[in-house]
Design goal:
The chain is of the alpha+beta class. It contains one helix and 14 strands; from the N terminus they run ββαββββββββββββ.
């Protein structure tokens, strides 16, 4: 069974030289690219699966406290940050919290209100009111504490988180 040349004007059909017709795209894919795709897919999956079990999380312990302004009113929405004093840690974590409408806060490190890792910390606090124009360049207002408690190098607020189920920070009064 021979091939019949197809004439397209002055040009011959380019598939005329293949006795069984033109090669199919699927044939080319299965012989050339397909093994490469499989190899890459297996390599990526192996990397992803091997990294799933690893975690750099430190054990955390519940920490709670209260923050009030100079008139003993709750410092609602103030941001509380615990900065570790141990500078040798290659991956320090900084647990944070927001003060609620009763003045309470509970630290968050990895999940909401889970606490903080054991160690000594210096505490910083920033208390910002929302800006009058939420679409303006400054989405948050000025720090109501004027930066008095926002620098970990100058803050006098310190606390040690211990390996126990509940750590309570003494009430903080912002004067």
């Amino acid at each position: 069974m021979g091939t019949v040349p197809i004439r397209l004007g002055a040009w011959d059909c380019p598939f005329r030289r293949f006795p069984f017709g033109a090669p199919k795209f699927g044939d080319y894919m299965s012989k050339q690219i397909h093994p490469t795709i499989i190899t890459l897919t297996v390599a990526v999956l192996a990397i992803l699966i091997s990294s799933c079990g690893k975690t750099d999380r430190k054990p955390v312990y519940h920490v709670q406290g209260k923050v009030f302004d100079k008139n003993n009113r709750p410092a609602v929405d103030a941001l509380v940050v615990f900065h570790p004093l141990d500078s040798s840690d290659a991956n320090p974590v900084k647990p944070i919290a927001r003060v609620d409408d009763k003045g309470n806060f509970a630290l968050t490190t990895y999940e909401k209100n889970d606490g903080g890792p054991e160690g000594e910390y210096v505490i910083t606090i920033e208390w910002r009111r929302p800006a009058s124009n939420p679409f303006g360049p400054n989405k948050e207002g000025k720090d109501l504490l004027l930066g008095s408690f926002s620098n970990p190098k100058t803050s006098k607020l310190k606390f040690k988180i211990s390996n126990q189920t509940d750590n309570t920070v003494p009430p903080i009064y912002l004067h």
